[in-house]
Amino acid sequence: MAASFGSLPASCNNKWYYTREQIDNNPSKRAGLDPDKELSYRQQAANLLQDMGQRLNVSQLTINTAIVYMHRFYMVQSFTRFHRNVISPAALFLAAKVEEQPRKLEHVIKVAHACLNPQDPSPDVRSDVSIGLWSTLPAVVLYLLLRLPDVVEI
User: Fold this and answer.
1) 6 in a domain, yes or no?
2) Nearest to residue 89, comparing CAs of 126, 143, 37?
3) What is the reported pLDDT for 5?
4) Over the chain, what is the mean pLDDT?
5) What is the mean pLDDT of residues 69-81?
6) Which pairs with CB-CB distance under 8 Å and at least 24 residues apart come from 129-138?
7) Cα–Cα dist 32/110, whole Å
8) For residues 74-101, average pLDDT
């Protein structure tokens, strides 16, 4: 994709750019996901991140960082293996920490639930749904860190 804009400046770090071949042969497409469906999933995940970020009152920079994490994650993993509604809250939780606007895990879980289930009341933190999210989200954040070593420096 970067090639269509001419050559990259020498100062650019190429780890941020993907070739057209890499984009066209990403894990979701290799897993058989239709390109239009993949685009729809990416848009849904980005919209969820925007909604969650606004409800958590984080900066647009933090939201954008989370969106970048999500897109880069799905360049190394498939939508068929990792659901966007699990990766998105983890990406926002991580981005908020990186951009020095940390939010409590409990708040991220409650906001994710509210965005994904607008008709349901906020879950009790001791409910089965919350316990599942509590146990899953930290592991997903760790997995994001492991899969995106060039993006997040510890």
Assistant:
1) no
2) 143
3) 47
4) 84
5) 93
6) 133/89, 133/109, 134/105, 134/109, 136/86, 137/86, 137/89, 137/90, 137/93, 137/105, 137/108, 137/109, 138/105
7) 33
8) 93
Is 57 within the bounds of a domain? yes
- Residue 5 in any domain: the answer is no
Domains of the chain: total: 1
Look up the domain containing 119 and give its range: 19-147
In a domain, 133, yes or no: yes
Mean of pLDDT values over 85-113: 92
Query: Which residue type occupies 58?
Result: V
Q: Residue 11: what are its φ and ψ, rounded to 5°? A: -75, -15
Q: Work out the average pLDDT over 68-87.
A: 93
Region of 6 (left: φ > 0; alpha: ψ -120 to 50; beta: rest) is left
Q: What is the domain-level CATH number for residue 32?
A: 1.10.472.10
The CA distance from 18 to 2, in Å, is 7
Q: Tokens for 68, please give them.
A: 């970048």
The CA-based angle 50-125-142, given to 5 degrees, is: 60
Round to whole Å and give the CA distance between 132 and 122: 15
